[in-house]
Write a structure and sequence with these properties.
The complex is a heterodimer. Chain A is an alpha+beta fold. Chain A is built from eight helices and nine strands. Chain A has two domains: 114 residues, 60s Ribosomal Protein L30, Chain: A, CATH 3.30.1330; 123 residues, no CATH class. In chain A, 38% of the residues lie in helices and 19% in strands. In chain A, α1 crosses α4. By secondary structure, chain B is of the alpha/beta class. In chain B, α2 crosses α3 and α3 packs parallel to α4. Classes of the chains: A alpha+beta, B alpha/beta. At the A-B interface, α3 and α6 of A face α5, α6, β9 and α7 of B.
Chain lengths: 287, 201
């Protein structure tokens, strides 16, 4: 019973993520449209909004690239669901690929073979955070290849400091131009080492647009970067304009004294997200 | 100026398009991404024929999400993919198969720019991620090739589209290139921001 309920909720969430752009993203895109002056930028945002509305109304995938299956799990050790989550996610991906449907995207990098079910070695991608308590939340982030190709790891010298971090992000977003389908959401990981900093940058993307980091100095840096990045002029779809990014989210961890790693992960305007929560009483909620 | 272009009747109109023009397309396009470019060029190199005639059609950089039902194929989402991935082979592709236009996103490099001038062809931008809108504009799936070998996203699909758009001309047969112009202002803006950041030290 548990397995079936969880799997059904995950299938619902996978379809919802692919077809319904979250309200915070829609609001941010509408604000951007109102602020733009160039006719090209306004036209791009209009097309984006019309597409999102059509996708929601007719339950069509917003973008044909439904990503590779990516899940961020925050799991309470006391939840009775803990042992079955991995399997439930795998089966939900198999089912949703057919029923949603999702584009079969996973390709074997050695043989070039596509199994057609979005599974295979290493799939689905699950990032685990184990916490005390009896609740589990599973964030789904179907992220397209166009934006994922724009991920970057910068290992700065510690002396570069905060200005160095700002400079690295500004230069990276400028170099990306229109390729990651702007206006983007920029996730930035700071510290922790090469692997951890990119994981943090990606985890930052599950946050709602406009949410701010709880540490005031980090929140201030997010706001400052948002302003700086929107001065670059890349604009919607890289065709020029005021809106290059919708939000900047930072996450950080302590660093080694010898290094200042920065992981930059770009999310396209189609910031598709869904969340499955399993409460201690066994209730399951999709949002 | 916004306008409608209907193919094949208005093929000659295509080469009169210039950077900044906006149009809605009715006519046939074929999809080809990285793997299809490689495969079609390989056939061409060996002197073999390809299973469809690209002349008079447009090349659409797209890997669609398609569902097969009893009634046939249904396209659910089919927005453009990143064109730059095809840059290494696009000039050769244009010279070999002569599609009249390319629809994609993000623009292409100087080699394709020169090939577009040579072929009197245009590159038109369609909004990345607008997969549902594009699917709605596809009124017929006419054929599909290499589906077994390449899979759904990389296969060559022949679509008939009705008023697909708005499409923005960003590279034209006269050598016009919106991206080249934008790049200059973006790097000037970036330099100013970086200078300000460096002053904080």
């Amino acid at each position: 019973m548990r397995e079936k309920n969880l799997q059904a909720a995950l299938v619902t969430a996978l379809k919802q993520a692919a077809t319904r752009l979250p309200d915070d993203v829609l609001s941010a895109l509408k604000r951007a449209k109102a602020a733009e002056e160039s006719s090209t930028a306004v036209r791009e945002l209009e097309t984006i909004l019309r597409n999102a509305e059509l996708a929601r109304r007719e339950e069509l995938p917003i973008c044909q690239d439904t990503g590779i299956p990516s899940f961020f799990v925050t799991a309470g050790t006391e939840s009775p669901y803990l042992p079955i989550i991995g399997e439930a996610i795998t089966e939900a991906v198999r089912t949703a690929t057919k029923s949603a449907p999702l584009r079969p995207n996973t390709v074997d990098p050695i043989t070039g073979e596509n199994p057609g079910d979005n599974l295979g070695r290493g799939m689905p991608l699950i990032d685990w955070e184990i916490v005390p308590g009896g609740e589990i939340s599973i964030d789904i982030l179907p992220k397209g290849g166009g934006s994922e190709n724009m991920s970057a790891l910068k290992i700065l010298l510690p002396g570069a400091g905060i200005p160095g971090i700002k400079r690295a992000v500004v230069e990276h977003v400028a170099a990306c131009g229109g390729l990651p389908c702007p206006p983007t959401i920029v996730g930035v990981g700071i510290g922790g080492g090469g692997m951890e900093t990119l994981r943090l940058g990606k985890r930052a993307l599950v946050r709602r647009i406009g949410s701010r980091h709880p540490v005031p100095a980090v929140a201030a840096l997010e706001a400052e970067l948002l302003e700086l990045l929107n001065e670059i002029g890349v604009g919607p779809m890289g065709l020029g304009g005021k809106t290059t990014v919708l939000s900047v989210h930072l996450e950080y961890a302590m660093r080694h004294p010898a290094s200042l790693p920065v992981g930059i992960v770009m999310q396209c305007w189609a910031d598709r997200r869904a969340r499955v929560r399993i409460f201690p009483d066994g209730r399951i909620e999709v949002s | 100026m916004e306008r409608a272009i209907v193919l094949p009747e208005e093929i000659p109109e295509l080469e009169r398009l210039r950077v900044g023009d906006v149009f809605y397309l009715t006519g046939r396009v074929f999809t080809a991404r990285d793997a299809a470019h490689r495969l079609l060029l390989e056939l061409h190199k060996r002197g073999e024929s390809i299973p469809f005639d690209p002349a008079g059609m447009g090349l659409y950089h797209c890997g669609p999400l398609v569902k097969r039902s009893a009634a046939g194929w249904r396209v659910l989402s089919a927005g453009p993919t990143t064109s730059m991935r095809m840059e290494p082979s696009e000039a050769r592709f244009l010279a070999a198969f002569h599609p009249r236009f390319i629809i994609g996103k993000g623009g292409m490099g100087p080699a394709t720019g020169a090939a577009l001038v040579q072929e009197r062809a245009v590159y038109a931008h369609f909004t990345g991620g607008a997969g549902a809108l594009a699917a709605k504009a596809i009124d017929r799936v006419e054929d599909v090739f290499f589906l077994e070998e390449l899979g759904m996203a990389e296969a060559v699909w022949i679509f008939h589209v009705k008023r697909l758009g708005p499409l923005l001309v960003t590279m034209d047969p006269a050598g016009g290139n919106l991206y080249r112009d934008l790049e200059k202002s973006i790097s000037a803006n970036k330099r100013k921001i970086v200078q300000r950041i460096e002053k904080e030290r």
